[in-house]
Amino acid sequence: MKEKREIYRFLHVTPRRIFEQLDQYVIGQRHAKEVLAIAAYNHLKRIEYLKFGGEVSIHKSNILMMGPTGSGKTYLARTLAKILDVPFAYNDATAFTEAGYYGEDVEVAIGRLLYATNQNVSSAENGIVFIDEIDKIARRSGGARTGAGARDIGGEGVQQALLKILEGEKIFVPLNVTAHWNKYDYVEIDISNILFICAGAFSDLEESSDGKPIGFFNGPGSATHEATTDDLTKYGFLPELLGRVPVRVKLDALTASDLVTILTQPREAMIPEYQRLCALDQIQLEFTEGGLFEIATAALRQKLGARGLRAIIEKVLHPILFVAPERAGERITIEADHVRRTLDS
Ligand SMILES: Nc1ncnc2c1ncn2[C@@H]1O[C@H](COP(=O)(O)OP(=O)(O)OP(=O)(O)O)[C@@H](O)[C@H]1O
Ligand SMILES: [Mg+2]
Question: Relative to the CA of 270, which ligand 1 atom is closest?
Fold first, then answer.
């Protein structure tokens, strides 16, 4: 019976269906959504294949996402895990240190996954581990780039440590990530099916290629050159690490019109959220096209991508939210001029 259900699931998930679901949340980034959908599909397929006794190995397709801040890297990965209904663990690569130094051992990443499943080992074994800020652990021997000098506590050593979890099989993981690691509270977990998604802004990648700019962060319409293994090696990654993260995907900087869409369209969009909030005070909150566009351009100026939107809206709506209960029954329309004035003040 169980097998039948598994086959059913296997047949009904397709890259296109995953893409369409991602599309309901994530605006723009068509290529990245396609790449993720394919990788996720292969991830599921691989798990099913092994369940049915497949023996020939199908290699894991761990993913490296590169793109400017606020373009949706973390959001895409989180949304993917939600859609696939698999556990998800967020990690910041800068917190990792190589074994023996004060900081997190990389095994903690798997510990977090276990924690997300309430210590359900078999569920964790199919999860997604997200490693953010991966660009920050590029080898720091250059020194000049990061100002960290020649010492390398967080760089190459961490990359070495990551090698063993990116393509490892069984490791011991702390059962309770909040407690200190000790020999009494770890559990063995098979990590060979865990999908790793690494991400980074790589905002200084252009410095690596001997002055030849790669420039994916230079804004929409700029060069679409994908970073090659060679570029990334020069940037400071170990070739062995890059080999374990074979699926590379670039996210675009979001445009003003993307940002307007993000404000209004997707599930979890911000404008409908504030409209609901105001509706509870019997206020009908509206935005003109110009008002929305002004908010979007303010976010572009801050160079924080979609990440800047909420703070801007909070500021724009501040005068209204303050008096909302006193203006019950009114209809309030936010125009470009109002946005400019509140942001300037
Ligand atoms: N393409 C997008 N579509 C819809 N919402 C987005 C998109 N990109 C970003 N957002 C919104 O902005 C927030 C911040 O984006 P996210 O955390 O994914 O940025 P990031 O690319 O990981 O940036 P950073 O490099 O700073 O970590 C998300 O939680 C989401 O609400
Ligand atoms: Mg992020």
Answer: 31
